[in-house]
Amino acid sequence: MGVIYQLTFFLALGLLAIVVTVFVFAISLLGRAIEVAAKEQEKTTKDQKDAIEIEIAEILKQISSLQKKKSIGKELQELEKSLKKLRKQDEKFARKLGRIVKAPELLTVKGGVVPPASYLLGALILSGGAWYLANIQLPLTIPAWIIPTVIWLVAFAGIGYSIFRIYQSLKVIESVAITSEEAALKRTVEAFKMAEKELEEERRPEVTLRILSVSFPLTLQPDSEKELTLEMRLQRGDYLENMEVFLIVPPDFSFPSVKSFRKLPSDHLYPRFPYISHKFERIVPGMIYTWTYKIKSPTIPGKYPLIHSIVGQGMKAKELKKEIIVK
Questions:
Q1: What is the mean predicted confidence (pLDDT) over 305-314?
Q2: How far apart are CA 195 and CA 203, in angstroms?
Q3: pLDDT given for residue 262 in this prediction
Q4: CA–CA separation, 118 and 16 (whole Å)
Q5: What class has domain 206-326?
Q6: Which residues contact 226 (CB under 8 A, 6 or more apart)?
Q7: Residue 104 to residues 56, 113, 131, 163, 297, Cα–Cα distance (Å)
Q8: pTM, 2 dp
Q9: Radius of gyration of the chain (CA)
Q10: What is the pLDDT of residues 135-174, one digit of tens each?
Q11: What are the sequence ranges of the domains in the chain?
């Protein structure tokens, strides 16, 4: 038996080293474990609330049904049965919440080191004592092997409990590590999507608009014509295809050089405003593109908007809004 006592002694010593190693690794996950526990507690509490509400609704339904049947005895039996289920459900969730709340404690000194280390130290002392007693002659009437064996059994039980505590800590570490990996993967995917979106935004074509040879607000006389030239340049992007420029004016304006024009729909931002447009099949950087047109002012003095809107394949719609004063 002396060999077994020796093995038990060294087993306890080895496990003591493992406890310290597990703690050093676990302490780095403590913050994440607390976060995970808080989220699980919130989810479990919600589940408990929903379960209780379902049970209460079922009880009320049974009461209503039994009242219609005027069955008092059966009503009490059903209520007791339902309430018993509800209590069991409460106890189940209470135990689950207790485990969730205590889980991070298994990664601390108090919960993850002190209990298993204390039992392992006790096992070291007891197995060492059993080892010593097995090698001496005891002046007792009982057989010499009984006392060392009893001491060894107590030491072995302490080792078993310590292994159980180490296992609990490792389970928490596993749970937190898996959750952390999932969170890290999710953050990586989100970062990749954001970078992809930013890259796409950087490559998106962008056009600058400028009206040449005039300053705004532009002053016009009533019922007068004015020729304007819009300049466009591709500021960003390799090229832009199917670009269309829209000139939008208030309903009292007109286009003298255009025989017919259309009006925007009534649900548009500028309802029933007349407009004309001009298309460019393809524009490239380093080139200047212009569009010259004429507008005719209304007879009524006032302040009016002059709107240029531009759309193209792969670009965000852009608007240039200026003011015209008729007086």
A1: 90
A2: 12
A3: 83
A4: 9
A5: mainly beta
A6: 218, 220, 294, 295, 296, 297
A7: 33, 13, 38, 18, 76
A8: 0.43
A9: 42
A10: 776 655 556 667 788 888 888 888 888 888 888 777 777 6
A11: 2-200, 206-326
